[in-house]
Amino acid sequence: MRKIGFILIIGLSLRFIVSCCDCNDTTVYKYTFNSMKTMHIDNSGQSPHYVEGGIIPKEAYGLQIELALSQLAYNKSLNFTGFNTAYAFDCFCPPEIAYFAQDTISEIRIITLNDFDITHKANSEISDYFKVLTSTNYLTIPAYVDTPEIIYYEKPEHDIILVYLMKPPAIIGEHRFKVEILLSDGTTLASSTTIINLE
Amino acid sequence: MSLKHIIVLILMMTAYPVYAQSDLKPIKWVVRPSFGKTLSITKLSGGYITDNLVEFGSNTYYWQFISSTYFFKKWGIEFSFSGNHSSKLNSNYDIFISQVENKYSENYFVTAASGAAYSDFNIVSGTIEKGSIGPVYKIEKDRFVLIGRAMIGTTSFDTNWGSADLKGKGTNELINIHWSNDRVLEDCFSLNPSFTFGYRLFGRIVLDFDVSYWIYKIDIDYTETIENLNTSEIQSQSYTYSDWINELSFGIGLMIVLK
Fold first, then answer.
1. Alpha-carbon span B99 to A40, nearest angstrom
2. Which chain A residue shows the shortest CA-CA distance from B175?
3. Is A46 in the B-facing interface, judged by CB distances under 8 Å?
4. Under CATH, what is the fold of the domain B3-257?
5. Is A44 close to B171, i.e. CB distance below 8 A?
6. How many CA atoms lie within 13 A of B206 on its CB side?
7. Taking the CB of the first residue and of the last residue of chain B, which one, N or C, has fewer CB atoms within 10 A?
8. pLDDT (tens digit per residue) in B24-76
9. Do B170 and A59 lie within an 8 Å CB cutoff?
């Protein structure tokens, strides 16, 4: 009886020591990509300007891809241990809510709708001519697609992808682009830009 | 207080004790707070964009709060520590930023930064710290005290990183430039012979004039890394500072005889 009492005391003490931080378990939501729209970027100045049309220097052209997100039903994360998720000696609680992507982006395609250069006539894919700007670097589109999905800790409204033209068009004048995003569930989102003059 | 006032005060202090006290014991243990100016005989070479990332100034003011000497008889041992600073160092950060902007602003929008913390001035150590230890020899005659030293020690100062983000004017070009040095704190082994001429104002107070010579080798290697984010191309260049620095310090202070 003494042994059982001793073990119970140890167990309760351990629970008290490691879980005296009062942290809630993280509630996990899912988000999905609903629709997308595109806008031109004039990057000739110090900061980018988002425009519907007009003239942009061909060396300073970019595209903003805005993906509308919506929240799905949530899964309450489970905790079988009986212990709290934070420890008494490290009272850094995990975020209370996290939003994970239901489906991931598996491919981004950028198609020119006008003749771009000798080898890329209208309706050719020119994704290789663009790079995605992250907070610190330019990434090729395949490298960007391979980056881990974004986890949001506040309710997400939209996801913005900024792509910039690394190789200006040989043919100056009016241009239009179409952006296609393929999701892991097989869905394709698409959007075409308005006409822009690249000079 | 003007220079005239200081001279009069010193004359009064020196005149009084001649008549006031004659029975003086040999100095055994003293502390020696002092201040003065350090003049550079040889200067840090360079002419690089990184010059202002090095917290090193040619001519500086010094102050020495910590200095203790113990004499066994004529010979003794001393430990000294002094802080050094030049007001020119306060503007190094702005000069660095301005130089980077001037170099690249024709074709790029420039956002420059530096880890330089020149404003974090320390009242005890300043921006350049000098510490030394070594044997001392004294000659005392009546109220006059002459002390010679052959010390070794270190001269320490910070070397900071710098960076610049360049955005092409009228283009999508992005360039990151980073200037870095392997060692943030530069410790230079130093030789430090010095002399002190003192006059004993009171039994426990000696007014002293100090002349000190410092010689040390500076070896700093800065690496400039230029990364073009569009092409992922990286270029590196080294800026090397390798100089023998010779300095001469003049100062005035008080020796407080503890024993």
1. 35
2. A137
3. yes
4. Porin (2.40.160)
5. yes
6. 31
7. N
8. 788 899 999 999 999 988 877 778 888 888 877 778 899 998 899 999 989 99
9. yes
